C-alpha cells in the first residue's frame, strides 16, 4: 500500500511556482533498490525457440495511469488504475517463469519514449529512475524516441551520462541517428556513442539463436522534434536496408529485430507497416510512437510487427519458432503464440520495485519541502473527469488554455492575450476524479509535462505573438484536418477565447473544414473575416506550438501559411523566443512554463466546499461549445 501523504494546497504566486522547478531539477535520491528480474537472455534448450517481451512509450510513468490517489500497486483488485512499474516488473517476472517452464529463452525489449510524462523526469539527470528501472528489470535493449530529445541533445547526453554513472548498462540502440560534424550541440551524444553507451546495433546469442537488433526513429517522430537539432535522422528504409545487410552478411545473425519508434496503427497501417513492405529481411519490428496497441501481431510480408500501447498499460509476449537459414537463404520465423498482457490491478506489484519508486518520490518531496508542495500534495478537487479526446473539444484542453490566457493576462494586464492555443500532442493526460476527487500535483503535471526552455528548466515556456484573422483561419484548417499531416490528431488545437464551427471528418473537403471562427469578447462573439490581414490578435501558446506554425505552409504545399507578427501586425517575428516573463521585477526573463501556468490557475480557483482546497468547476468536465459541428 502506498503511503498517502496528502498535503494541503498552497495558493501559489507565479514566483513560487517558478522556484519549485529549479529545486526539482536539482533533486536526487540514493542508490536504487533492485526491482527484481534477471538478465534478458536466459539459458534454454531448443535454440529455435524465443520469447520476446516488449514495451514502448513508457513516458516516465513509474506509477499507475489514473488518479494517483487510487493507485495501490501492492494490493490487487481494489482500484481501476492501469500500468505502474511495480506491476510491470511482476508481470515480467511471471512471463520469464512461463518461458522457463517451456525451456524458452527470453528477450526484453523497448521501442523508445521511455522519458517525459511525469514528475519523475525531473530526476532524469541525477537518479535516472526510468533507465534504472529498465536495468533492474533486465531489459536487453531500448531505442531513442522523439521525447528522449525533448531536453535537446545536451539534455539527453546528461541523462545517459547520469545513467551510466548509476550503473545502468542497458544498450541504447540508435541506427539512423546522424550526428553533426560541424555543430558542437551534439558533442555529448557523440562522446557517448564513441564510448558504446549509444550503439548502432546489438548482436547477442540468446539460447541457441544469434540475434541482431537495430533501432530507428521515424519521419513523423523526427518532424515533431525540432529540439533534436543538430541531430538529424536518416530515412528509416535506407537505414534498415543497411542494417539488415550488415547483420545478415557480416554478423551472420539468425534473427533480425528492429526497435522502431516510427509507429503502427490499430488498423495495421503506419510507417512500420510501410517499412516492412519496403525492406525485406526484418523478422520482427517492435513498434512505438503511435500509442496504439495490437492484440495480435500484424504480418507484412515475412515481417512480424507488435506494439503495446503506452504508459506501461501492457506487456507484449511474443513466442517465436526460428529455423536458422541455410547458406544464402532466409530464416523461417513463425509465431507460436502472442499475449498482450494487461498491466492492471489484477497484478500484485513487486515490493522491491515499489520501494525504489517511493525512494524517487521521496527525492522529489525533499526538493519541494520548502515550498509546501509534494508529489502527493492535493492541489485541487474535481467531482468529474476532464477527458482528453483526439478530434474535438476536450474538457482538459479548455482548462489548460484558460489557464494560459488567465495567467498571462494577469502578468500583462495592459495588453492581455485574447486567444490561447495548445495542441493535443502536448496534452498528455486527462484529469480523472477517481474514488476521492483529489488531484495531486503529480496528476496535474502529467497533463502538460513536456519540453524544456533556454533556462534548462523542464516544461515548454509560454510565448506571445500576434496573428491576423487569415493566419488564424489557416492554422485552424490544419488543426481540423485528419488527412493533411501524419499523426493529425497531434495538431488538433484546443483553445480559449475562440468558438469554432469545424468539420474534422476524414471526408471533409480540403481547405473548407473551418466554417466559422468567432472571437469571444465577454458575452459577445465577433466573427473573424478570413480575408482580414490588417487586424491582429494577441496569442499565447507554448513555444512548441509556436514552432509548428511553419508546418502549415509545408504540409499544405504552400496553399496556406501562418506568419507570427509583432503588435503592429506587420513586422514578422520568431514566435518561439517571445517568452512570457513570469516575474518582471527580476533581471532577465523568468520563463513561465505551461505546467506552472496551469498550477497557478488551478490554485486560484474557488474553494466552493470550504475545505481549503480549490475546486475545479463542473463546467470543465464537459464540452462548452468552443468547437462544434456546423
Task: Please explain how this structure is put together.
- The chain has 630 residues and is an alpha/beta fold.
- The protein is built from 15 helices and 27 strands.
- The protein has two domains: 306 residues, Metallo-dependent phosphatases (Purple Acid Phosphatase, chain A, domain 2, 4-Layer Sandwich), CATH 3.60.21; 239 residues, Alpha-Beta Complex (5'-nucleotidase,  domain 2), CATH 3.90.780.
- A six-stranded mixed beta sheet has the order 9-10-12-13-15-14.
- Helix 8 links the parallel strand 12 and strand 13.
- It starts with 13 loop residues before the first helix and ends with a strand.
Find the count of extended strands (DSSP E, 2+ residues).
27
Beta-strand content bin: 15-25%
CATH superfamily of the largest domain: Metallo-dependent phosphatases
Q: State the CATH architecture of the largest domain.
A: 4-Layer Sandwich
* Separation of the first and last Cα atoms: 50 Å
How many domains comprise the coordinates? 2
Rg estimate, integer Å? 24 Å
Question: What's the story with the biggest beta sheet?
Answer: 6 strands, mixed
Number of helices: 15
Q: What structural class do you assign from the helix and strand content? A: alpha/beta
Short note summarizing the structure:
This protein is of the alpha/beta class.
Essential attributes:
6-stranded mixed beta sheet; 26% helix; single chain; disordered N terminus; 5'-nucleotidase,  domain 2; globular
